[in-house]
Every structure is written in structure tokens, then in C-alpha cells.
Design goal:
By secondary structure, the protein is of the alpha/beta class. 40% of the residues lie in helices and 20% in strands. The chain starts with a strand and ends with a helix. This is FMN dependent NADH:quinone oxidoreductase.
Length: 208
Amino acid sequence: MTRLLHIAASPRGDESESLALASTFLEVYRELHPEDEVAEWDLWDGTLPEFGPAAAAAKMDVFAGRTPTGPGAAAWQAARATFDRFAAADKYLFSVPMWNASVPYILKQFIDVVSQPGTVFGFDPDQGYSGLVTGRKAAVLYTSAVYGEGRAPSFGADFQSPFFDGWLRWAGITDLTTVELRPNLAVADPEARRARAHTEAIEAAKNF
């Protein structure tokens, strides 16, 4: 059975533009793929472990070929369990609002927790990094309230999609589909922009 995992980075519930796009995408996807399992992961639900001193020490132990011990062992186990939840999926849907020109900190926390040697990436001293999360595909729904391509620098910059697209490709996920709704605040005819983005989400779901 194919498993689609929706990873939500917005805490705004019914007020969230990215979650609304995800709802449109998933409604179509479920209709077209009734046999698939669709799972939801709200990154704000409190299940995401921190990645603090013990976890950082454990990561460096693993890099050095040592087995983490003490608090590091527990932190490493939590990071591995989080990765296993992520890696259990065949397809990913990410709903990603823009925060301060980049991604919400909870999504960066997720990335920092799962991006470990032997899980998301391999490393060779001569060849560098290699992504290990291969054979999967991802759809990313990007939103922003103020930033939009072609707007003046005073409306912000995009460190959101280059960062997150870059992480996905670095992890080995190269089959990417993106839908953008930006900007959606203080612009002419925001409903037309919104309708266009939802239409694009429908088409993305049909081809996912």
C-alpha cells in the first residue's frame, strides 16, 4: 500500500492558507487513490523532539564511529524514531508558510532532527554528501502574505523555497512538485490568486 504523509508546518488551523491548499490537494488525492493510506503529521503537536546538546553530541559520536551513550543515547533514539516515522512514507505533501523570509522554526527543527548520518544522508570524505531518502516524491505548498516574485525588495525576499527545495534534493528526493500562493495580503484581487493556487493544487494532486 502506498503511504502519503502530509507534514504541516503552519500552526494557524482554519486561518492557514497553506493548510487550505493542503485540504484541496488531499481531497482530490483521496478521491483518485482510495486505496492509499494518507497520514497527517502536525509538527506543532508536541511529538517532535528537541535537538539540543545531547543530540548534537550523539550526532558527532556517530560521525566518529562511536555509539552514543547516556543522555546522548536517548536523544539519538528519539531522533531515529522521528526519522522512521518520516521514512515510512512513499510520498510527501508539505504545507509551508513563509516566516521572516524563510520557513517556520518548527520545520527547521524537524529537518535538524531527522537529518542524521545513515538516515537522511551518507558522507564520504572524498565524495561528500549523498542523499539516502530516495525513490520518493514530494509536493510542496508554499505560501507567503507579503513576499511575491517581482515585488520590490521592501516586500521581502525568498529564502523559503531555495532552502526547503534544497534540503529535499540533498536528502535524495528529486521528484518535486510545487504550488505557490504568494502574496495573499494587501494585493489586488487576492481571491483570484487564491483560486489560481487551489486550481494548481488540484492539478498537482491529479498527477501525484
